[in-house]
Structure to design on (483 residues):
């Protein structure tokens, strides 16, 4: 009667996990170390469907001892529903063999062992709901094929990876409404891998991911202080904040966590990176996730960048990449918060016709380093002023404009840095320049005529006769007016 009751409890556990899915999930089948058998057989049958094994040395050794558990005299494995392997000294566990030989399992535990690799795949026929791999040494990296060992377990509802030193989480494609996972005491777990798991669950309808021992759950990431990088451990509460930020990603764009930034001795900022490149955008996205510091809109059809100044969600932006667009002016950036805080402004291969030096100059003269501007590939309208001032300014600020040699002239077959003042600034001759000489000649002729007339008049008054040229002139009908 006692065995039947245990068997019934195990099936109730299975129904509880796969159907009921209450807010608290029962633990996998586990036995205390003091329950290890002291006889020659290393496995013991705790009831007619549950086996506890200790100190097995290999996979084959495990199955030999499973066969001898409970004085089993048959040549076939018993229909095991729950298996706990304790203190196994093998460094690898082959799920390929396991899948065929123990296909009735509901609960599997391999704890306090030296297993560092899982091989093969469990088949779709397995109804395992609970896996416990706690206190193993999975190391920091798994090959890609090993990350797929659990993806066939559609009914998996509890996975314990606590105390395993695991860095990248395996692929999980279960179909249960609530999935519990324990990642406590793993400081090497990559935050990207954890966020990827959380995102995959969110993409599935009617599916919820729940964490056990969240106070002791951490992940490893990169800490950005603007001027140097180091590694840092993030608490689970901070990971939830990052996951929430990623859900605010604009449609058609890709968002990921960028870094963990210290803004004061006590305050930290979880920053976001948004990639909207190659998306056929005609304008900048309006709503960015909170604390977005990197935006990439390369290779679109954007014509203006006014959103950098006008939209509140851009207030923390420091890295802006808008290469290969149709931006024609940066005048809107004058005096903006972005120009005070930016680290990179990249506008390669746009449609800029001029570069307002005064807008960029203010940011280049800051006391701290940074403020990189990429302008290569733009076709400017070049004239004498370009050769005299812009060329000199670009060369003086080459540390801030690393691609300054790639800025072209639209109307001249030169790069801006190759312009020659002696060639570009030569004044071209114009026909209007000769008008000044014509006017001067006319004035001189008029003065000469006035002088001659005045002289003739003086001679006539004093001598009574006209000079020879005037006396020989024919008399005109209008002369009586002067007589």
């Amino acid at each position: 009667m006692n065995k039947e009751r245990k068997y019934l409890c195990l099936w109730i556990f299975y129904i509880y996990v796969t159907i009921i899915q209450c807010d608290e999930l029962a633990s996998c089948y586990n036995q205390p170390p003091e329950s290890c058998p002291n006889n020659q057989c290393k496995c013991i049958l705790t009831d007619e469907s549950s086996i506890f094994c200790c100190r097995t040395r290999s996979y084959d050794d495990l199955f030999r001892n499973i066969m001898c558990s409970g004085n089993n005299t048959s040549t076939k494995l018993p229909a095991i529903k729950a298996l706990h392997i304790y203190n196994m000294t093998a460094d690898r566990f082959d799920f390929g063999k396991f899948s065929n030989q123990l296909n009735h399992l509901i609960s599997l535990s391999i704890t306090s062992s030296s297993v560092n690799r899982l091989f093969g795949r469990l088949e779709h026929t397995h109804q395992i709901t609970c896996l416990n791999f706690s206190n193993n040494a999975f190391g920091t990296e798994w090959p890609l094929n090993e990350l797929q060992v659990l993806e066939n377990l559609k009914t998996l509802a509890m996975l314990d990876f606590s105390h395993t030193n695991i860095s990248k989480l395996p692929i999980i494609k279960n179909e249960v409404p609530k999935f519990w996972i324990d990642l406590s005491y793993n400081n090497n777990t990559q935050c990207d891998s954890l966020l990827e798991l959380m995102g995959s669950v969110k993409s599935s309808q009617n599916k919820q991911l729940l964490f056990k021992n969240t106070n002791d759950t951490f992940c490893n990431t990169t800490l950005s202080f603007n001027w140097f990088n180091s590694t840092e451990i993030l608490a689970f509460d901070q990971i939830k904040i990052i996951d929430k930020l990623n859900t605010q990603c604009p449609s058609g764009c890709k968002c990921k966590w960028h870094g963990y930034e210290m803004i004061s001795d006590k305050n930290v900022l979880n920053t976001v990176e948004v990639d909207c490149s190659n998306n056929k955008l005609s304008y900048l996205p309006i709503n960015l996730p909170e604390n977005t510091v990197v935006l990439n809109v390369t290779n679109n059809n954007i014509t203006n960048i006014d959103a950098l100044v006008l939209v509140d969600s851009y207030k923390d932006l420091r890295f802006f990449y808008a290469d290969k667009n149709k931006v024609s002016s940066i005048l809107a950036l004058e005096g903006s918060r972005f120009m005070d805080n930016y680290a990179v402004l990249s506008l390669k291969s746009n449609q800029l016709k001029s570069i307002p030096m005064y807008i960029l100059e203010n940011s280049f003269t800051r006391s701290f380093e940074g403020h990189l501007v990429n302008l290569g590939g733009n076709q400017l309208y070049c004239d004498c002023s370009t050769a005299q001032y812009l060329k000199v300014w670009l060369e003086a600020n080459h540390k801030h404009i690393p691609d300054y040699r790639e800025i072209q002239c639209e109307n001249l077959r030169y790069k801006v840095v190759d312009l020659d003042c002696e060639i570009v600034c030569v004044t071209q001759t114009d026909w209007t320049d000769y008008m000044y000489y014509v006017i001067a000649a006319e004035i001189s002729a008029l003065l000469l005529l006035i002088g001659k007339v005045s002289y003739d008049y003086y001679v006539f008054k004093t001598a009574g006769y006209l000079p020879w040229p005037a006396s020989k002139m024919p008399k005109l009908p209008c002369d009586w007016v002067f007589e």
